[in-house]
Design a protein that fits this description.
homodimer; globular; mainly alpha; 2 domains
Chain lengths: ~500, ~500
């Protein structure tokens, strides 16, 4: 490698880090918008974030980047596509070509609309008034279509939107994987519904004072390894993981004093995301090697801690006594098995973020189908609430009684996040595959969980997933870790095994 | 005015607004740094803020600005120096010429050092360990000297630093005004010390639960007009007013459960700053017409609400029953006059932010003299704690027993704010002059305060001060409002009148 090439690469890396600083500053503005921003500051915040997004986009499409790529992609630095420099150049070429297709004006308008859209969504949800949000949603969909057209596609207009969150995935492929999953899942859910046993979920609806929930959630996040020296936990209307990156990762949750699951499993979920962010190499801020590989992989980390760990019996073997101490009124007379069964209740429900492990993917399927239809123009915004309700009736057998509990429940569309939902189900699939591999590598994880020992699993994830950033694509990473391609089987095996015991199902 | 000139001016205004967006984003990063930032994020925050400061500085020194100024300063738009366009061009020329003298590298280093310096200061203060902070302070002073040299000066190296906060003021002039003030003040303080009566301050040291303090402080801030729809009140180690400008103004305070004054008067003080920020025209964000005219004028707003209003008997006529309701244990048996005398205790003390109205300016004088000596090189950092203690002994007759209560008490030097302190005393002088004029214009303010009616004074300040931004300089503004130049007499008259009654002094 010539000294010239090396200094050229250094200039490229500096450019990326500076862009990363802007993006992380924008991350703080976004976090603040959802946690502490006074309502009168919303318009200014939209303008600030739109301007910063525009600056970032200008830097991401700087022709100088193209020149650097032209020189460096033919150099030794690009020879190994999985080395830090090779991965950086490979990912950057993809991003650069993608970004150059997006007009500056469109990027700024979308960023600004995301802020005003979220504000309208919050108000619409509070007032249970879809009409208040509809005009902004229509505008958002128009712009997302424009974005998809600008990016170009062969199959579905939805493809380039999905590709933003799950690089390399096609709509048709995802539809196939989710169809396979559904085919295996529906019979299991039917078996469960037909079972004569069912948990007592009333115990989760007793009174759980907020302060106790905050203490327990924070302790659990800390126990699985979320680093509060480099992160925070706050309250927000819609829980999320954001902030400024590895050294300043901010997760949020929301408290319902009459429902245990919401904050506790929400916190574990976001802490799982947070562990991934904190596990990325912070010195690579702004570089592909310091970035998450895909949303599906990101989600695999949150779902692993929320479900595969947090809803396991061994986890509660250790944590249940602490929960009892925190909530004596609600839990003193409840034994571990009763509680464990309750947090694993399988039941068609209206709210995605509170759905159980088994039915969750049907919630995703509904959104995936609806947003394809919205983007494709086969469904009009005015007809969306009814389409939503009809699908819930068809797939889950229940119908929302209000839009606040129906089509207005998720922040995503208001923030312009189309193509995002299917990554949740991909995350569930990846998580089970990884958990299977971790068990093979580390031995009996349950014994460790019973002792409150989560470090082996966390460190394994650090080694196998977090530290690699985007050095491998999502599929490469899964192949590397598990030796197998993406499959719905490990998830189904996990669900079948767990619920056979809980619901006394025949395992034939 | 030609269409050409007009569109040129519009481009200039757009440029300034975009710079204002960056500055307001940086304002949020700074607010967050002092309220919610986890400690592990400090280095990243320093880098983010340094990078944004650099971007802002590059935009402020963009040669394009010089070209716009060359064209527009000779046009009709500049004809009236107090019109929005005239003031914009006049202030911008001053700022541009000033900014162009500062090397980009120096600006970025100072911004970064400000963050790490403040972190070191917090630690040093917690550990009462000046040595931990000394190397960073030395570095800061070296850079401030560099800054002063780069800006150029005729009189004292300190002049260009002072000019940053109080445009147009000279070190020698300020020294003279403060000397006049001291000459009038010292005999008054001596009279007070010789008085046989003295308030019972023990009542302020009783137990005041934090939640009650937070409620009362927030209610008072709201009552004087701080708009919580466009602002927040949070907790920070060193109280300040910051955030993103008129539409998102953030004030902070700190609570001491065994001292009433700290949070209550601190909140009133910051709310006074906040009223000024919220009263600036928000559509002029980034333009001189949307900016505060000087720190002295800014401080006049905080001191007016903290002291001239908040420490008046008429204010407590209305507020004392609320305080008694909030703190029955501490205040039930205390009558209004006893409480009023207690919050107006005059007594030499160690902590500036908790000093009384009369001795406060001596605290400023000490800092003003010390920082001139530090910048001038006559005083070394290693000798600073002893110099500090010696001056307290000389001017106030008391000696700090620890550096935490001495030289480490203020954040300013750690943040690179040299030349800032004297503006506090200028603020006291301006405030009294304005209050005199407001009384003349509005009639008996005390009657209004007794009824909890603060709107007339607030609206008068909006009209006479806030809405003008930088359309007039500080001296012009004072002349316009009061018909007189800067003077220490109104402040002295206020202090003499108030303390003569409280301490039973002869008024001869």
């Amino acid at each position: 490698m010539s000294a010239n090439t090396s200094s050229e690469y250094q200039r490229l890396a500096n450019h990326l880090r500076e862009t990363g600083l802007l993006a992380s500053a924008n991350g703080l503005l976004g976090w603040d918008q959802q946690t502490y921003l006074p309502s009168g500051g919303n318009n200014l915040r939209a303008e600030q974030m739109a301007y910063l997004s525009g600056l970032i986009h200008r830097r991401q499409t700087d022709p100088q980047l193209g020149q650097w790529l032209d020189t460096l992609c033919d150099s030794d630095l690009a020879a190994d596509p999985h080395s830090p420099s090779g991965a950086t150049l490979r990912c950057l070429r993809r991003d650069y070509e993608r970004n150059c297709k997006l007009p500056q004006q469109l990027v700024e308008t979308l960023a600004s609309l995301s802020v005003t859209g979220q504000q309208a969504w919050i108000e619409a949800r509070q007032q249970n008034n879809f009409a208040h949000f509809a005009p902004l949603l229509e505008q958002t969909i128009r712009l997302k279509r424009e974005q998809a057209e600008a990016l170009g596609f062969v199959g579905h207009l939805y493809d380039p939107l999905l590709d933003e969150y799950e690089p390399g995935q096609q709509t048709a492929q995802v539809a196939q994987v989710l169809a396979d999953l559904r085919e295996a899942l529906v019979p299991l859910i039917q078996q469960i519904e037909a079972s004569p046993v069912c948990p007592s979920t009333e115990i989760l609806r007793r009174r759980y004072p907020e302060a106790g929930q905050a203490r327990l959630g924070r302790a659990a996040a800390e126990a699985i390894g979320f680093d509060f020296q480099r992160g925070r936990l706050d309250v927000a209307e819609h829980p999320f993981c954001g902030g400024c990156g590895a050294d300043d990762t901010r997760i949020t949750t929301r408290y319902d004093e009459h429902y245990f699951n919401s904050a506790f499993f929400g916190t574990l979920h976001e802490a799982g995301h947070g562990l991934y962010e904190q596990g990325l190499p912070s010195e690579a801020l702004g570089l592909p090697t310091g970035e998450a590989v895909s949303l599906g992989i990101h989600e695999s980390q949150s779902r692993m801690w929320e479900n595969l760990v947090g809803r396991s019996r061994s986890f509660w073997e250790f944590w249940y006594p602490r929960a009892q101490t925190e909530f004596p009124e609600a839990l003193q007379a409840v034994d571990l098995d009763t509680f464990y069964f309750a947090v694993n209740d399988v039941r068609p429900s209206l709210i995605r973020v509170e759905a159980d492990e088994a039915t969750y993917n049907l919630h995703i399927l509904i959104r995936f189908e609806l947003e394809q239809a919205l983007v494709g123009g086969e469904l009009q915004v005015a007809d969306l609430p009814e389409a939503w309700n009809a699908k819930y009736e068809k797939y889950l057998g229940i119908r929302p009684s209000s839009d606040a509990d129906g089509v207005l429940q998720d922040v995503h569309w208001s923030a312009g996040l189309f193509g995002y939902f299917p990554t949740y189900s991909l995350g569930n699939l990846y998580a089970s595959q990884m958990f299977e591999a971790a068990t093979e590598a580390l031995g009996d994880l349950d014994t460790m969980f019973c002792q409150g020992n989560f470090a082996p699993l966390r460190d394994w994830l650090r080694r196998e997933v977090h530290r690699w950033g985007r050095c491998y694509s999502a599929s490469e990473l899964i192949e590397r870790i598990t030796g197998k391609p993406l499959s719905h089987e490990p998830l189904m095996q996990h669900l079948r095994g767990k619920f056979a015991v809980l619901y006394g199902l025949s395992t034939s």
